Amino acid sequence: MKVLPWEKSSISKENLIELFFKNSSKKEFSSQEEKLKFLDCWFNIYLDKWPENVLVALSPKNEFMGYLLGCFNSQKALPILKLKISSYSIFEEHFYDFPAHLHVNVSNDFQGQGVGKKLIEYFQNMLKENSIQGLHAITSSDASNIQFYAKLGFLRVDEKPFKNWNLVFMGKKLFDYKIV
Ligand SMILES: CC(C)(COP(=O)(O)OP(=O)(O)OC[C@H]1O[C@@H](n2cnc3c(N)ncnc32)[C@H](O)[C@@H]1OP(=O)(O)O)[C@@H](O)C(=O)NCCC(=O)NCCS
Question: Can you give the CATH number for the domain in which 117 is found?
Answer without folding.
Answer: 3.40.630.30
